[in-house]
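Async update (no meeting this week)

Hi team, since we skipped the sync, here's where things stand on the single-chain job. The sequence we agreed to prioritize is pasted below, unchanged from the tracker. I ran it this morning and attached the output directly underneath so nobody has to dig for it. Comments welcome in thread, and please keep replies under the output.
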Amino acid sequence: MADGHWLDPLARSLLEATGQLPARPRAAAASADQAGDRANSGAQGLPLGQASDDPGVDTEAAAIERELLALKLRRNPGLRLSTATEVRHAAALGWRLDVNRATAADWLRLPGISPHQVDLLLRLQAGGVQLSGPEDLQQLLELPGDQIGCWQPLLLFRWYGEPASPQVRQLDLNRANASQIHAALSGLSLERCQRLVRERQRAPFRDLADLQQRLQLPAALVEELIGRVRFSQGPAGPVLPRPS
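Output:
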């Protein structure tokens, strides 16, 4: 019997991705995968991992990558996509992002999108603004061509006759007091809520980006606030006592 691992390199990659086998060191994995590619590519007439000039031809490597992604998505339905290749595979698996109804969690799955861009999209959606195509989205977010091209396989532009209903009841950070903010947003400590109230006395917050910059909030916390807060403008009125 020839020396070597009993497991086919592609099958091993599948098991490693799902946590059923420990990952190999990078150098060893690359060497084994290259050997497997050479052994299996002859029947197809195209090396694994090499794109075909014909877009209708799907390589075995692409099929394996797509199956790996499908397994990861079953294990973690909230998985974020990190590359254009993953976006294409997700689209091939039937995923779509309904641009005019997408939630914050939906948008944050796209590679390279920022919390501030998501916040803007949700505020416009709440205001009844609808986008009709990739060009609208690219212009709105000032995206480079390669980024909108990366997202495009997943984007679905449907037109709705009614504006989107609010996803959650939003807290007005330019009106609520520190105790109300702390009770509604567990990620903000009471000290940070008090600092927020003091800071807005200088000027009301314009949006989530302004809030993050002025309070120096971490990006992870800003993501938690997307779609959950709003910012009315103008001076806050007096706080009236509740009727007994």
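Quick observations from my side:
Residues 1-7, 35-57, 237-242 have pLDDT under 50 and may be disordered.
Strands lie at 97-98, 155-156, 171-172, 229-230.
Reply here if anything looks off.
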